[in-house]
Amino acid sequence: MLKKMTATIILVLFLILLISVIVGLSASMKLEKQNYYLSSFPNLSGLKIMHLSDLHYPNNGVELSTIVSEAESYSPHLIFLSGDTFDKSATRQDVVKLQPFFNKLNLIALTFGVIGNHEIGSEILDDFIALSQASGGIKLLNNEIVYYTYNSEQIAIIGLKDAFKYNIKNIPALNSVNDNATKILIAHRPEKFPDYVTENNRPQLIFAGHAHGGQIRLFGKGLYAPNQGLFPRYTEGEYKKNGCSMFVSRGLGDSASNLRWFNSYHIITVEFT
Questions:
Q1: Which of 167, 171, 170 is nearest to 196 (CA)?
Q2: Please, what CATH class does the domain formed by 2-272 belong to?
Q3: How far is residue 88 CA from its own chain's centroid?
Q4: HSE on the CB side for 190, CA within 13 Å?
Q5: pTM to 2 decimals?
Q6: Distances (CA, A) of 235 to 40, 72, 183, 251
Q7: Tens-digit pLDDT profile for residues 201-244
Q8: Alpha-carbon distance 178 to 125, whole Å?
Q9: Quick one: which H or E segment has residue 7?
Q10: How far is CA 229 from CA 166, 211, 212, 257, in A?
Q11: Domain ranges of the chain
Q12: Angle, nearest 10°, between helix axes 92-108 and 125-132?
């Protein structure tokens, strides 16, 4: 009798585990669009930004056509790609396939990107830079600043290349940013948030990725993230510090070795009201 009861309990627990694995993996294959509304920048009212991160092409979890459709539906003024657009396993042929995607995004809105850790060590990085910016494609910001004007208000869009610190030494143009300009930083690594907001030229807004939502999410929290380890602090959504808001995307793809569980793919939109 005891053996039969024990076997029943084990079977029930196994079925529960199996169902949770299936449901968790299924949930991770979906795409979630998370919308934020900012009222603290009244002079930018109406401005719309779409944030895409960690596509890891060709290991993308969301089809390129779906991303384009989402962008067309939202009609942003600006699109940001916060790194790891292609995976370390990508070939030059894969990068060539990305060029039409970049061109379509840039027809919808001005599109800016930065280089993440998968790209910075890649042998095809130079090909990526050349192809992404060819024929009206996206603008990659390698420790650079570009300016965008909306409703007569100047926005300084700052792109931080992976493995570089956010400071004047690495981005000399920070020294000449107009004090009245709204500073927006696109950076790959969210774990550097405290460093981003300690500089005199700290941004008001940051867009980052890299954490992949913590890979496995339990009770709304990520379990593990690169460079943050177990129980990471910055995995998804909005974080605030020193008058700055950082928006972290869970990403749109994975490295081949990564597993997502209860962790859907993620697009962030920010609208100024």
A1: 167
A2: alpha beta
A3: 17
A4: 32
A5: 0.92
A6: 24, 27, 22, 10
A7: 899 999 999 999 999 998 889 999 999 999 999 999 999 999 99
A8: 32
A9: helix 2-28
A10: 22, 10, 12, 16
A11: 2-272
A12: 30
